[in-house]
Design a protein that fits this description.
heterodimer; A: 6-stranded mixed β-sheet; 9 helices; globular; B: mainly alpha; 17 helices; 4 strands; about 5% strand; elongated
Protein backbone atom coordinates (compact mmCIF):
# COMPACT_ATOMS: atom_id res chain seq x y z
CA UNK A 1 0.00 0.00 0.00
CA UNK A 2 1.45 3.31 -1.15
CA UNK A 3 0.06 6.67 -0.26
CA UNK A 4 1.29 10.01 -1.59
CA UNK A 5 0.15 12.99 0.44
CA UNK A 6 0.47 16.39 -1.17
CA UNK A 7 4.02 15.82 -2.39
CA UNK A 8 5.92 18.77 -3.78
CA UNK A 9 9.41 19.00 -5.20
CA UNK A 10 11.29 21.76 -6.96
CA UNK A 11 14.66 21.77 -8.64
CA UNK A 12 15.84 25.35 -8.46
CA UNK A 13 13.14 27.49 -10.06
CA UNK A 14 11.43 24.54 -11.70
CA UNK A 15 8.49 23.09 -9.77
CA UNK A 16 8.54 19.46 -10.92
CA UNK A 17 5.84 18.14 -8.60
CA UNK A 18 3.18 20.47 -7.21
CA UNK A 19 1.00 18.76 -4.65
CA UNK A 20 0.57 15.18 -5.77
CA UNK A 21 -1.73 12.95 -3.75
CA UNK A 22 -2.95 9.45 -4.64
CA UNK A 23 -2.92 5.98 -3.24
CA UNK A 24 -2.07 2.62 -4.74
CA UNK A 25 -3.64 -0.39 -3.08
CA UNK A 26 -2.47 -3.95 -2.48
CA UNK A 27 -3.45 -6.53 -5.07
CA UNK A 28 -3.74 -3.85 -7.72
CA UNK A 29 -1.60 -2.52 -10.52
CA UNK A 30 -1.62 1.24 -10.61
CA UNK A 31 -0.34 3.16 -13.61
CA UNK A 32 1.19 6.58 -13.23
CA UNK A 33 0.42 8.05 -16.62
CA UNK A 34 1.60 11.34 -18.02
CA UNK A 35 3.54 12.97 -20.81
CA UNK A 36 7.30 13.35 -20.68
CA UNK A 37 8.36 15.80 -18.01
CA UNK A 38 5.05 15.63 -16.16
CA UNK A 39 6.69 14.73 -12.84
CA UNK A 40 6.19 10.94 -12.90
CA UNK A 41 9.80 10.05 -12.23
CA UNK A 42 10.20 12.72 -9.58
CA UNK A 43 7.09 11.43 -7.81
CA UNK A 44 8.34 7.85 -7.95
CA UNK A 45 11.77 8.91 -6.71
CA UNK A 46 10.20 10.51 -3.67
CA UNK A 47 8.18 7.34 -3.06
CA UNK A 48 11.25 5.15 -3.23
CA UNK A 49 13.20 7.54 -1.00
CA UNK A 50 16.05 8.74 -3.18
CA UNK A 51 14.56 12.24 -3.26
CA UNK A 52 13.24 14.03 -0.22
CA UNK A 53 9.97 15.91 -0.78
CA UNK A 54 10.05 19.66 -0.21
CA UNK A 55 6.72 19.25 1.54
CA UNK A 56 4.13 16.55 1.96
CA UNK A 57 4.87 12.92 2.75
CA UNK A 58 4.43 9.45 1.39
CA UNK A 59 3.55 6.34 3.35
CA UNK A 60 4.76 2.87 2.43
CA UNK A 61 2.56 0.41 4.32
CA UNK A 62 2.07 3.23 6.80
CA UNK A 63 5.76 4.09 7.17
CA UNK A 64 6.78 7.62 6.32
CA UNK A 65 9.49 8.02 3.68
CA UNK A 66 10.47 11.29 5.32
CA UNK A 67 10.61 10.19 8.94
CA UNK A 68 11.98 6.68 8.46
CA UNK A 69 13.32 6.13 4.95
CA UNK A 70 15.30 3.04 6.00
CA UNK A 71 12.16 1.24 7.19
CA UNK A 72 10.24 2.36 4.12
CA UNK A 73 12.96 0.95 1.86
CA UNK A 74 12.62 -2.51 3.41
CA UNK A 75 9.13 -2.91 2.03
CA UNK A 76 9.70 -1.62 -1.47
CA UNK A 77 11.30 -3.14 -4.53
CA UNK A 78 12.49 -0.68 -7.14
CA UNK A 79 13.10 -0.93 -10.84
CA UNK A 80 14.62 2.38 -11.77
CA UNK A 81 14.72 4.02 -15.13
CA UNK A 82 17.10 2.12 -17.41
CA UNK A 83 17.23 -0.97 -15.18
CA UNK A 84 21.00 -0.72 -14.67
CA UNK A 85 22.62 -4.02 -13.73
CA UNK A 86 26.27 -4.71 -12.95
CA UNK A 87 27.98 -5.91 -16.11
CA UNK A 88 30.76 -7.81 -14.42
CA UNK A 89 28.43 -9.80 -12.20
CA UNK A 90 26.26 -12.68 -13.34
CA UNK A 91 22.50 -12.35 -13.16
CA UNK A 92 22.56 -14.52 -10.03
CA UNK A 93 25.23 -12.38 -8.39
CA UNK A 94 23.28 -9.23 -9.21
CA UNK A 95 20.37 -10.73 -7.31
CA UNK A 96 22.30 -12.04 -4.32
CA UNK A 97 24.17 -8.73 -3.96
CA UNK A 98 20.91 -6.96 -3.30
CA UNK A 99 19.81 -9.81 -1.07
CA UNK A 100 22.89 -9.17 1.00
CA UNK A 101 22.23 -5.42 1.11
CA UNK A 102 18.76 -6.26 2.35
CA UNK A 103 20.24 -8.32 5.14
CA UNK A 104 19.44 -11.83 3.92
CA UNK A 105 21.78 -14.56 5.12
CA UNK A 106 23.90 -16.34 2.54
CA UNK A 107 21.63 -19.39 2.51
CA UNK A 108 18.50 -17.26 2.29
CA UNK A 109 19.70 -15.10 -0.54
CA UNK A 110 20.96 -18.05 -2.55
CA UNK A 111 17.65 -19.87 -2.11
CA UNK A 112 15.70 -16.74 -2.99
CA UNK A 113 17.82 -16.12 -6.10
CA UNK A 114 17.21 -19.68 -7.28
CA UNK A 115 13.49 -19.20 -6.69
CA UNK A 116 13.36 -15.95 -8.67
CA UNK A 117 15.46 -17.36 -11.49
CA UNK A 118 12.92 -20.11 -11.89
CA UNK A 119 9.91 -17.86 -11.49
CA UNK A 120 11.16 -15.35 -14.09
CA UNK A 121 12.47 -18.09 -16.39
CA UNK A 122 16.02 -16.84 -16.25
CA UNK A 123 17.77 -20.23 -16.20
CA UNK A 124 19.45 -19.92 -19.62
CA UNK A 125 21.41 -16.82 -18.64
CA UNK A 126 21.43 -16.88 -14.84
CA UNK A 127 25.13 -17.62 -14.52
CA UNK A 128 26.41 -15.52 -17.38
CA UNK A 129 27.99 -12.09 -16.91
CA UNK A 130 25.44 -9.38 -17.53
CA UNK A 131 27.77 -7.69 -20.01
CA UNK A 132 26.17 -9.26 -23.08
CA UNK A 133 22.55 -9.32 -21.90
CA UNK A 134 19.68 -8.26 -24.11
CA UNK A 135 17.30 -5.57 -22.83
CA UNK A 136 14.81 -8.26 -21.87
CA UNK A 137 17.41 -10.21 -19.89
CA UNK A 138 18.54 -7.04 -18.16
CA UNK A 139 14.98 -6.23 -17.22
CA UNK A 140 14.41 -9.66 -15.73
CA UNK A 141 17.63 -9.40 -13.79
CA UNK A 142 16.68 -5.97 -12.48
CA UNK A 143 13.21 -7.20 -11.63
CA UNK A 144 14.52 -10.23 -9.75
CA UNK A 145 16.91 -7.92 -7.91
CA UNK A 146 13.99 -5.70 -6.92
CA UNK A 147 12.04 -8.69 -5.62
CA UNK A 148 14.83 -10.44 -3.72
CA UNK A 149 13.61 -9.34 -0.29
CA UNK A 150 9.94 -10.13 -1.07
CA UNK A 151 8.73 -6.54 -0.86
CA UNK A 152 5.00 -5.91 -0.57
CA UNK A 153 5.31 -2.95 -2.89
CA UNK A 154 6.96 -2.76 -6.29
CA UNK A 155 7.74 0.53 -8.00
CA UNK A 156 8.79 0.59 -11.64
CA UNK A 157 9.91 3.64 -13.58
CA UNK A 158 9.05 3.31 -17.29
CA UNK A 159 9.83 -0.41 -17.24
CA UNK A 160 8.90 -1.08 -20.86
CA UNK A 161 11.24 1.48 -22.38
CA UNK A 162 13.40 -0.14 -25.03
CA UNK A 163 11.80 -3.57 -24.72
CA UNK A 164 10.60 -5.64 -27.63
CA UNK A 165 7.09 -7.06 -27.82
CA UNK A 166 7.99 -10.43 -26.31
CA UNK A 167 9.73 -8.86 -23.35
CA UNK A 168 6.81 -6.53 -22.72
CA UNK A 169 4.43 -9.48 -22.75
CA UNK A 170 6.70 -11.30 -20.33
CA UNK A 171 6.74 -8.32 -18.00
CA UNK A 172 2.99 -8.02 -18.19
CA UNK A 173 2.60 -11.62 -17.16
CA UNK A 174 4.96 -11.22 -14.22
CA UNK A 175 3.26 -8.05 -12.97
CA UNK A 176 -0.12 -9.74 -13.19
CA UNK A 177 1.25 -12.66 -11.14
CA UNK A 178 2.55 -10.27 -8.52
CA UNK A 179 -0.77 -8.50 -8.33
CA UNK A 180 -2.58 -11.78 -7.91
CA UNK A 181 -0.20 -12.64 -5.09
CA UNK A 182 -1.38 -9.49 -3.32
CA UNK A 183 1.44 -7.10 -4.09
CA UNK A 184 0.98 -3.42 -4.66
CA UNK A 185 2.45 -2.56 -8.07
CA UNK A 186 2.97 1.03 -9.20
CA UNK A 187 4.54 1.85 -12.51
CA UNK A 188 4.99 4.93 -14.58
CA UNK A 189 4.53 5.14 -18.30
CA UNK A 190 3.76 7.52 -21.08
CA UNK A 191 2.48 4.73 -23.29
CA UNK A 192 -1.29 4.59 -23.30
CA UNK A 193 -1.81 1.05 -24.56
CA UNK A 194 0.41 -0.33 -21.88
CA UNK A 195 -1.52 1.28 -19.09
CA UNK A 196 -4.76 0.29 -20.72
CA UNK A 197 -3.79 -3.36 -20.99
CA UNK A 198 -2.27 -3.75 -17.59
CA UNK A 199 -3.67 -1.39 -15.01
CA UNK A 200 -6.55 -1.65 -12.64
CA UNK A 201 -6.14 1.92 -11.53
CA UNK A 202 -4.66 4.92 -13.22
CA UNK A 203 -3.30 8.21 -11.95
CA UNK A 204 -2.88 10.84 -14.65
CA UNK A 205 -0.23 13.43 -13.95
CA UNK A 206 0.53 16.51 -15.94
CA UNK A 207 2.43 19.65 -15.06
CA UNK A 208 3.32 18.16 -11.70
CA UNK A 209 -0.29 17.72 -10.62
CA UNK A 210 -2.80 14.89 -10.59
CA UNK A 211 -5.57 15.63 -13.06
CA UNK A 212 -7.44 12.35 -12.78
CA UNK A 213 -7.23 9.23 -10.64
CA UNK A 214 -9.27 6.12 -10.08
CA UNK A 215 -10.21 2.85 -11.75
CA UNK A 216 -9.48 2.79 -15.45
CA UNK A 217 -13.15 2.80 -16.44
CA UNK A 218 -13.94 5.81 -14.23
CA UNK A 219 -11.13 7.89 -15.66
CA UNK A 220 -12.29 7.14 -19.14
CA UNK A 221 -15.88 7.90 -18.29
CA UNK A 222 -14.98 11.18 -16.59
CA UNK A 223 -13.33 12.41 -19.75
CA UNK A 224 -16.40 11.34 -21.68
CA UNK A 225 -14.41 9.10 -23.96
CA UNK A 226 -14.03 5.44 -24.41
CA UNK A 227 -10.41 5.23 -25.37
CA UNK A 228 -7.81 6.14 -22.83
CA UNK A 229 -5.75 7.96 -25.41
CA UNK A 230 -8.53 10.42 -26.08
CA UNK A 231 -9.24 10.73 -22.39
CA UNK A 232 -5.58 11.46 -21.84
CA UNK A 233 -5.47 14.19 -24.47
CA UNK A 234 -8.57 15.88 -23.12
CA UNK A 235 -7.36 15.63 -19.51
CA UNK A 236 -3.96 17.07 -20.23
CA UNK A 237 -5.40 19.64 -22.62
CA UNK A 238 -2.89 18.51 -25.19
CA UNK A 239 -0.42 20.68 -23.37
CA UNK A 240 2.36 18.21 -22.82
CA UNK A 241 4.17 18.30 -19.54
CA UNK A 242 4.87 21.99 -19.24
CA UNK A 243 3.55 23.49 -16.07
CA UNK A 244 0.71 25.85 -16.82
CA UNK B 1 26.64 0.28 14.06
CA UNK B 2 25.66 -2.38 11.58
CA UNK B 3 28.49 -2.82 9.08
CA UNK B 4 26.68 -5.36 6.89
CA UNK B 5 26.21 -2.85 4.06
CA UNK B 6 29.86 -1.81 4.01
CA UNK B 7 30.98 -5.43 3.86
CA UNK B 8 28.48 -6.35 1.14
CA UNK B 9 29.50 -3.39 -1.03
CA UNK B 10 33.19 -4.06 -0.44
CA UNK B 11 32.91 -7.71 -1.48
CA UNK B 12 30.87 -6.95 -4.55
CA UNK B 13 33.16 -4.13 -5.73
CA UNK B 14 36.24 -6.25 -5.14
CA UNK B 15 34.86 -9.19 -7.06
CA UNK B 16 33.38 -7.13 -9.89
CA UNK B 17 36.64 -5.31 -10.51
CA UNK B 18 38.59 -8.53 -10.46
CA UNK B 19 36.74 -9.25 -13.70
CA UNK B 20 37.36 -5.81 -15.18
CA UNK B 21 40.32 -5.70 -17.53
CA UNK B 22 40.79 -1.96 -17.08
CA UNK B 23 41.09 -2.25 -13.31
CA UNK B 24 43.42 -5.20 -13.50
CA UNK B 25 45.65 -3.52 -16.05
CA UNK B 26 45.92 -0.31 -14.09
CA UNK B 27 46.27 -1.95 -10.68
CA UNK B 28 48.41 -4.95 -11.48
CA UNK B 29 50.27 -4.19 -14.71
CA UNK B 30 50.83 -0.53 -15.51
CA UNK B 31 52.17 0.63 -12.17
CA UNK B 32 53.88 -2.53 -10.89
CA UNK B 33 55.48 -3.52 -14.19
CA UNK B 34 55.97 -0.41 -16.31
CA UNK B 35 57.32 1.80 -13.51
CA UNK B 36 60.10 -0.55 -12.39
CA UNK B 37 60.89 -1.44 -16.00
CA UNK B 38 61.24 2.24 -16.85
CA UNK B 39 63.55 2.97 -13.94
CA UNK B 40 65.59 -0.17 -14.55
CA UNK B 41 66.01 0.79 -18.21
CA UNK B 42 67.07 4.31 -17.27
CA UNK B 43 69.58 3.08 -14.73
CA UNK B 44 70.91 0.56 -17.25
CA UNK B 45 71.34 3.36 -19.79
CA UNK B 46 73.17 5.56 -17.28
CA UNK B 47 75.44 2.70 -16.30
CA UNK B 48 76.36 1.84 -19.88
CA UNK B 49 77.13 5.49 -20.62
CA UNK B 50 79.10 6.03 -17.44
CA UNK B 51 81.15 2.96 -18.25
CA UNK B 52 82.04 4.01 -21.78
CA UNK B 53 82.25 7.77 -21.52
CA UNK B 54 85.25 8.34 -19.30
CA UNK B 55 87.88 6.36 -21.20
CA UNK B 56 86.50 6.73 -24.71
CA UNK B 57 88.28 8.95 -27.21
CA UNK B 58 86.52 12.23 -27.98
CA UNK B 59 86.24 13.23 -31.61
CA UNK B 60 86.66 16.93 -32.34
CA UNK B 61 86.25 18.56 -35.72
CA UNK B 62 88.86 21.29 -36.12
CA UNK B 63 88.46 24.16 -38.52
CA UNK B 64 91.79 25.53 -39.79
CA UNK B 65 93.87 22.90 -38.05
CA UNK B 66 97.00 24.17 -39.81
CA UNK B 67 96.98 27.29 -37.59
CA UNK B 68 97.64 25.43 -34.32
CA UNK B 69 99.62 22.24 -34.92
CA UNK B 70 101.11 22.11 -31.41
CA UNK B 71 97.78 22.48 -29.64
CA UNK B 72 96.33 19.72 -31.77
CA UNK B 73 99.27 17.44 -31.15
CA UNK B 74 98.79 18.07 -27.41
CA UNK B 75 95.10 17.18 -27.62
CA UNK B 76 95.73 14.19 -29.83
CA UNK B 77 98.20 12.79 -27.32
CA UNK B 78 95.47 12.96 -24.64
CA UNK B 79 92.72 10.93 -26.32
CA UNK B 80 91.21 13.50 -28.66
CA UNK B 81 90.69 12.38 -32.25
CA UNK B 82 91.02 15.25 -34.68
CA UNK B 83 88.96 15.56 -37.86
CA UNK B 84 90.03 18.38 -40.12
CA UNK B 85 87.20 20.46 -41.57
CA UNK B 86 86.84 23.81 -43.23
CA UNK B 87 83.86 25.70 -41.84
CA UNK B 88 83.08 29.36 -41.14
CA UNK B 89 81.20 30.37 -38.00
CA UNK B 90 77.72 29.86 -39.44
CA UNK B 91 78.77 26.54 -40.93
CA UNK B 92 80.14 25.38 -37.59
CA UNK B 93 76.93 26.29 -35.79
CA UNK B 94 74.87 24.41 -38.32
CA UNK B 95 77.10 21.38 -38.18
CA UNK B 96 76.80 21.14 -34.38
CA UNK B 97 73.06 21.74 -34.37
CA UNK B 98 72.51 19.09 -37.00
CA UNK B 99 74.74 16.70 -35.02
CA UNK B 100 77.09 16.29 -37.99
CA UNK B 101 79.90 16.99 -35.52
CA UNK B 102 79.35 17.04 -31.76
CA UNK B 103 82.23 19.38 -30.97
CA UNK B 104 83.96 21.81 -33.33
CA UNK B 105 87.10 23.71 -32.47
CA UNK B 106 87.76 26.75 -34.61
CA UNK B 107 91.25 28.26 -34.72
CA UNK B 108 91.02 31.96 -35.69
CA UNK B 109 93.43 33.41 -38.25
CA UNK B 110 95.47 35.44 -35.74
CA UNK B 111 95.88 32.55 -33.27
CA UNK B 112 99.56 31.99 -34.04
CA UNK B 113 100.42 35.71 -34.24
CA UNK B 114 98.77 36.57 -30.89
CA UNK B 115 100.41 33.62 -29.20
CA UNK B 116 103.78 34.87 -30.43
CA UNK B 117 103.10 38.40 -29.11
CA UNK B 118 102.09 37.10 -25.69
CA UNK B 119 98.46 38.25 -26.21
CA UNK B 120 95.51 36.05 -25.19
CA UNK B 121 94.92 33.83 -28.21
CA UNK B 122 91.25 32.87 -28.64
CA UNK B 123 90.01 29.52 -29.81
CA UNK B 124 86.31 28.91 -30.35
CA UNK B 125 84.62 25.74 -29.13
CA UNK B 126 81.16 24.92 -30.53
CA UNK B 127 79.01 22.38 -28.72
CA UNK B 128 75.38 21.81 -27.76
CA UNK B 129 75.00 22.00 -23.99
CA UNK B 130 71.42 20.76 -24.16
CA UNK B 131 72.84 17.30 -24.90
CA UNK B 132 74.12 15.97 -21.58
CA UNK B 133 76.58 13.49 -23.03
CA UNK B 134 78.10 16.03 -25.45
CA UNK B 135 78.39 18.45 -22.53
CA UNK B 136 80.68 16.05 -20.75
CA UNK B 137 82.91 15.61 -23.82
CA UNK B 138 83.11 19.33 -24.50
CA UNK B 139 84.01 19.90 -20.84
CA UNK B 140 86.87 17.48 -21.28
CA UNK B 141 88.15 19.27 -24.41
CA UNK B 142 87.80 22.66 -22.70
CA UNK B 143 89.77 21.38 -19.75
CA UNK B 144 92.53 20.06 -22.02
CA UNK B 145 92.75 23.36 -23.93
CA UNK B 146 92.97 25.28 -20.65
CA UNK B 147 95.62 22.88 -19.38
CA UNK B 148 97.62 23.50 -22.55
CA UNK B 149 97.33 27.26 -21.85
CA UNK B 150 98.60 26.77 -18.29
CA UNK B 151 101.58 24.81 -19.54
CA UNK B 152 102.46 27.61 -21.97
CA UNK B 153 102.11 30.13 -19.14
CA UNK B 154 104.41 28.08 -16.93
CA UNK B 155 107.01 28.00 -19.72
CA UNK B 156 106.73 31.79 -20.04
CA UNK B 157 107.26 32.27 -16.31
CA UNK B 158 110.26 29.98 -16.36
CA UNK B 159 111.67 31.97 -19.30
CA UNK B 160 111.35 35.12 -17.15
CA UNK B 161 112.91 33.47 -14.14
CA UNK B 162 109.72 33.18 -12.02
CA UNK B 163 108.75 29.98 -10.23
CA UNK B 164 105.49 28.94 -11.95
CA UNK B 165 104.24 27.49 -8.67
CA UNK B 166 103.84 31.00 -7.22
CA UNK B 167 101.10 31.85 -9.69
CA UNK B 168 98.95 28.98 -8.46
CA UNK B 169 98.21 30.27 -4.97
CA UNK B 170 95.22 28.06 -4.30
CA UNK B 171 94.84 24.43 -5.16
CA UNK B 172 91.26 23.23 -4.63
CA UNK B 173 90.75 19.64 -3.50
CA UNK B 174 87.26 18.18 -3.82
CA UNK B 175 86.00 15.63 -1.34
CA UNK B 176 82.74 13.91 -2.32
CA UNK B 177 81.04 12.64 0.83
CA UNK B 178 78.11 11.00 -0.94
CA UNK B 179 77.79 7.37 0.05
CA UNK B 180 76.92 4.73 -2.51
CA UNK B 181 73.35 4.69 -1.23
CA UNK B 182 72.92 8.45 -1.34
CA UNK B 183 74.26 8.50 -4.91
CA UNK B 184 71.72 5.89 -5.80
CA UNK B 185 68.99 8.03 -4.25
CA UNK B 186 69.87 10.63 -6.82
CA UNK B 187 69.47 8.12 -9.60
CA UNK B 188 66.34 6.58 -8.13
CA UNK B 189 64.62 9.77 -7.06
CA UNK B 190 61.81 9.30 -9.50
CA UNK B 191 61.18 5.88 -8.05
CA UNK B 192 59.23 7.20 -5.04
CA UNK B 193 57.17 9.30 -7.41
CA UNK B 194 56.35 6.24 -9.50
CA UNK B 195 55.49 4.15 -6.42
CA UNK B 196 53.00 6.72 -5.13
CA UNK B 197 51.51 7.26 -8.57
CA UNK B 198 51.22 3.55 -9.20
CA UNK B 199 49.45 3.15 -5.87
CA UNK B 200 46.89 5.81 -6.80
CA UNK B 201 46.33 4.26 -10.21
CA UNK B 202 45.51 0.95 -8.56
CA UNK B 203 42.26 2.40 -7.20
CA UNK B 204 41.53 4.76 -10.06
CA UNK B 205 38.90 2.76 -11.93
CA UNK B 206 37.13 1.69 -8.76
CA UNK B 207 36.87 5.30 -7.72
CA UNK B 208 35.48 6.32 -11.09
CA UNK B 209 33.05 3.43 -11.10
CA UNK B 210 31.94 4.07 -7.53
CA UNK B 211 29.64 6.95 -8.39
CA UNK B 212 30.01 8.15 -11.97
CA UNK B 213 29.99 4.62 -13.37
CA UNK B 214 26.96 3.53 -11.31
CA UNK B 215 25.14 6.68 -12.31
CA UNK B 216 25.88 6.20 -15.98
CA UNK B 217 24.74 2.56 -15.91
CA UNK B 218 21.59 3.54 -14.08
CA UNK B 219 22.30 1.31 -11.10
CA UNK B 220 22.98 4.07 -8.57
CA UNK B 221 19.34 4.82 -7.99
CA UNK B 222 18.43 1.26 -7.15
CA UNK B 223 21.49 0.97 -4.94
CA UNK B 224 20.30 3.99 -2.97
CA UNK B 225 16.98 2.25 -2.31
CA UNK B 226 18.71 -0.54 -0.40
CA UNK B 227 17.99 -0.33 3.33
CA UNK B 228 21.57 0.58 4.18
CA UNK B 229 22.75 3.98 5.42
CA UNK B 230 23.93 5.80 2.33
CA UNK B 231 27.35 6.65 3.68
CA UNK B 232 27.95 2.93 4.21
CA UNK B 233 27.67 2.41 0.48
CA UNK B 234 30.53 4.77 -0.21
CA UNK B 235 32.57 3.48 2.74
CA UNK B 236 32.41 0.03 1.13
CA UNK B 237 33.47 1.45 -2.21
CA UNK B 238 36.36 3.37 -0.66
CA UNK B 239 37.45 0.22 1.16
CA UNK B 240 37.46 -1.74 -2.12
CA UNK B 241 39.49 0.97 -3.89
CA UNK B 242 41.89 0.94 -0.93
CA UNK B 243 42.29 -2.84 -1.22
CA UNK B 244 43.30 -2.55 -4.87
CA UNK B 245 45.66 0.29 -4.01
CA UNK B 246 47.29 -1.86 -1.35
CA UNK B 247 47.79 -4.68 -3.83
CA UNK B 248 49.22 -2.24 -6.34
CA UNK B 249 51.56 -0.75 -3.73
CA UNK B 250 52.90 -4.10 -2.54
CA UNK B 251 53.43 -5.32 -6.10
CA UNK B 252 55.11 -2.12 -7.23
CA UNK B 253 57.57 -1.98 -4.36
CA UNK B 254 58.35 -5.68 -4.76
CA UNK B 255 58.92 -5.30 -8.48
CA UNK B 256 61.19 -2.32 -7.89
CA UNK B 257 63.16 -4.32 -5.41
CA UNK B 258 63.58 -7.14 -7.91
CA UNK B 259 64.27 -4.90 -10.91
CA UNK B 260 66.91 -2.84 -9.14
CA UNK B 261 68.72 -5.95 -7.93
CA UNK B 262 68.99 -7.07 -11.57
CA UNK B 263 70.48 -3.95 -13.11
CA UNK B 264 73.55 -3.99 -10.90
CA UNK B 265 73.94 -0.49 -9.58
CA UNK B 266 77.39 -1.34 -8.17
CA UNK B 267 78.82 -0.51 -11.56
CA UNK B 268 77.70 3.08 -11.07
CA UNK B 269 79.62 3.07 -7.83
CA UNK B 270 76.31 3.08 -5.97
CA UNK B 271 74.01 0.50 -4.50
CA UNK B 272 70.33 1.05 -3.95
CA UNK B 273 69.13 -0.02 -0.56
CA UNK B 274 66.12 -2.04 -1.66
CA UNK B 275 66.39 -5.38 0.07
CA UNK B 276 63.33 -7.12 1.55
CA UNK B 277 63.65 -5.14 4.79
CA UNK B 278 63.78 -1.78 3.01
CA UNK B 279 60.88 -2.81 0.78
CA UNK B 280 58.79 -3.74 3.84
CA UNK B 281 59.60 -0.39 5.47
CA UNK B 282 58.60 1.43 2.29
CA UNK B 283 55.30 -0.41 2.09
CA UNK B 284 54.44 0.36 5.69
CA UNK B 285 55.40 4.02 5.27
CA UNK B 286 53.04 4.32 2.29
CA UNK B 287 50.19 2.15 3.57
CA UNK B 288 48.54 4.89 5.67
CA UNK B 289 48.21 6.93 2.49
CA UNK B 290 45.93 4.34 0.94
CA UNK B 291 42.77 5.37 2.77
CA UNK B 292 43.47 9.02 2.02
CA UNK B 293 44.12 8.32 -1.66
CA UNK B 294 41.05 6.10 -2.07
CA UNK B 295 38.78 8.62 -0.35
CA UNK B 296 40.30 11.46 -2.35
CA UNK B 297 39.72 9.79 -5.73
CA UNK B 298 36.24 8.56 -4.81
CA UNK B 299 35.29 11.98 -3.49
CA UNK B 300 36.44 13.78 -6.62
CA UNK B 301 34.82 11.37 -9.04
CA UNK B 302 31.49 11.61 -7.21
CA UNK B 303 31.19 15.13 -8.64
CA UNK B 304 31.49 13.95 -12.22
CA UNK B 305 28.35 13.48 -14.27
CA UNK B 306 29.67 10.68 -16.43
CA UNK B 307 32.43 8.10 -16.58
CA UNK B 308 34.29 10.12 -19.18
CA UNK B 309 34.03 13.29 -17.16
CA UNK B 310 35.33 11.46 -14.10
CA UNK B 311 38.30 10.20 -16.10
CA UNK B 312 39.10 13.75 -17.14
CA UNK B 313 38.80 15.09 -13.57
CA UNK B 314 40.91 12.33 -12.10
CA UNK B 315 43.58 12.60 -14.76
CA UNK B 316 44.07 16.11 -13.47
CA UNK B 317 43.44 15.49 -9.78
CA UNK B 318 45.80 12.56 -9.59
CA UNK B 319 48.71 14.89 -10.32
CA UNK B 320 47.80 17.36 -7.57
CA UNK B 321 48.87 15.25 -4.58
CA UNK B 322 52.14 14.58 -6.34
CA UNK B 323 52.94 18.28 -6.82
CA UNK B 324 54.73 18.57 -3.46
CA UNK B 325 56.98 15.76 -4.66
CA UNK B 326 58.03 17.66 -7.73
CA UNK B 327 58.78 20.73 -5.64
CA UNK B 328 60.70 18.56 -3.22
CA UNK B 329 62.72 17.20 -6.10
CA UNK B 330 63.37 20.59 -7.67
CA UNK B 331 64.19 22.43 -4.45
CA UNK B 332 66.07 19.51 -2.93
CA UNK B 333 63.93 19.69 0.25
CA UNK B 334 65.47 18.18 3.35
CA UNK B 335 63.40 16.09 5.72
CA UNK B 336 61.85 18.35 8.35
CA UNK B 337 59.31 17.60 11.06
CA UNK B 338 56.83 20.09 9.57
CA UNK B 339 56.81 18.26 6.24
CA UNK B 340 55.63 15.10 7.98
CA UNK B 341 52.17 16.65 8.26
CA UNK B 342 51.87 16.88 4.48
CA UNK B 343 50.45 13.74 2.89
CA UNK B 344 52.41 12.43 -0.11
CA UNK B 345 55.34 14.72 0.71
CA UNK B 346 55.96 12.97 4.03
CA UNK B 347 55.77 9.55 2.38
CA UNK B 348 58.12 10.73 -0.36
CA UNK B 349 60.66 11.94 2.18
CA UNK B 350 60.38 8.72 4.20
CA UNK B 351 60.89 6.59 1.10
CA UNK B 352 63.88 8.68 0.10
CA UNK B 353 65.35 8.19 3.56
CA UNK B 354 64.94 4.44 3.24
CA UNK B 355 66.56 4.33 -0.19
CA UNK B 356 69.50 6.37 1.14
CA UNK B 357 69.92 3.73 3.85
CA UNK B 358 69.51 6.37 6.53
CA UNK B 359 67.62 5.99 9.78
CA UNK B 360 64.01 7.19 9.86
CA UNK B 361 63.39 9.27 12.98
CA UNK B 362 60.58 7.47 14.84
CA UNK B 363 58.86 10.78 15.55
CA UNK B 364 58.75 11.50 11.82
CA UNK B 365 57.28 8.12 11.07
CA UNK B 366 54.63 8.53 13.74
CA UNK B 367 53.61 12.01 12.64
CA UNK B 368 53.38 10.90 9.04
CA UNK B 369 51.35 7.79 9.83
CA UNK B 370 48.96 9.35 12.34
CA UNK B 371 48.32 12.59 10.44
CA UNK B 372 47.78 10.80 7.12
CA UNK B 373 45.38 8.31 8.68
CA UNK B 374 43.42 11.16 10.26
CA UNK B 375 43.19 12.99 6.92
CA UNK B 376 42.01 9.74 5.36
CA UNK B 377 39.19 9.32 7.87
CA UNK B 378 38.16 12.97 7.56
CA UNK B 379 37.99 12.73 3.78
CA UNK B 380 36.07 9.44 4.00
CA UNK B 381 33.58 11.11 6.30
CA UNK B 382 33.17 13.96 3.81
CA UNK B 383 32.61 11.46 1.01
CA UNK B 384 29.89 9.87 3.17
CA UNK B 385 28.23 13.27 3.58
CA UNK B 386 28.29 13.60 -0.18
CA UNK B 387 26.32 10.38 -0.52
CA UNK B 388 23.57 11.80 1.64
CA UNK B 389 22.98 14.63 -0.82
CA UNK B 390 20.37 14.04 -3.45
CA UNK B 391 22.36 16.03 -6.02
CA UNK B 392 24.34 12.81 -6.21
CA UNK B 393 21.77 11.37 -8.58
CA UNK B 394 22.75 13.95 -11.20
Amino acid sequence: MLEARDLTKSFGAIAAVRGVSFSAGDGRITGLLGPNGAGKSTTLRMLYTVLKPDSGDALIDGRSVVADPLAARRSIGVLSHGAGVYNHLTARENITYFGELHGLSRADRNARAAELIEQLEMQPFADRLAKGFSQGQRLKTALARALVHKPRNLLLDEPTNGLDVMAVRGLRKILAQLRDAGHCVLFSSHVMQEVEQLCDEVVVITGGQVVAAGPLADVRARAGNLRLEDAFVSLTDGNGGDAK
Amino acid sequence: MNLRGIWAVFRKEFRENLRDRRTLLSALVFGPVLGPALVAAMVQFLISHAETQSDENVTVAVSHAERAPNLLAYLNARGVDIVKVDLDEAGARRAVMSQQYKIILEIPEDFGARLQEGQPAPVILYSDSSRPFDRRSSGRVRGLVAQYGIEIAQLRFLARGIDPISVLPISPQEVDVSTPSSRSALVLNMMTYLILLSMLFGGLYLAIDATAGERERGSLEVLLTAPVPREHLIYGKIAAAAAYMLISLVLTVTMFSVAISFVGLEKLGTSANLGPRAAATMISACAPLILFGAAYLTFVSAFAKSYREAQTYLGLMITIPTLPLMFAGMLGLQTKTAFMFVPFLSQHLLLTTVVRAEEIAPVHLWISVVSTVIYGFVLTWFAGRLYRREGLLG
